[in-house]
Amino acid sequence: MMVKESYRAQWDRSRAYLETGDLGLALQELRDGLTLAPDDVVLWEEVFNLSLLGGLTQNALAAAVRLRELAPENTDFIGLHAMAALLAGKLTEAVPLFEEVLRRDPGSVETRRQLARALDVAGQRGRVRTLLEEAVALAPTETGAPNDLAVHYLEHVPQEGPALAVRVLGPVLEAHPADPPTHFNLALALRLSDPARARYHVQKVLKGDDKDLRAQAQQLLTMIPA
Q: Which InterPro entries would you find in this protein's record (predicted)?
């Protein structure tokens, strides 16, 4: 990361404010820096990152658009634009951007996940399963794509969905035996077919650090047949 001396003081103050949790002041220092170097991609990318951190999706989207203007062929910036558009609810903008990133980087697992998410939110579920199955084929033991696919199976594939979810999560659990979301989704998948195993996976979640997931697991426990 090449920080220019012309805005070094603003950059350093921004980092200091960020360390104390003053996100608004940190962003203001970056904007002050942009008055000195309005076309600096390092500054704009940091504005994007801090805006996302603060949940300022419109600010992040504006920063991503500016990065695209400064470097139109940069695939990473197209991805940032797509992500910001998705978070801002601009699905018709996000989907073709993710498609473009995938065209440029056909081996990307994360782009497939994000595109599947955008299509799912848009109600265009025809390709969601295909995209997620491709992502799992590329990374069968990572925690992200297999859990996304398991949830898709459980929510959108009647009858055989739970068995498909168990199958896709098996290699993940073997590689990450303590991963709470994997245990939670296995509990969901096994709730009716194997209540004892489902309760086992719930107990694993309850021993984890994710407070929200623990609350969901506690609720799921009441839905598992005795």
A: TPR-like_helical_dom_sf (IPR011990)
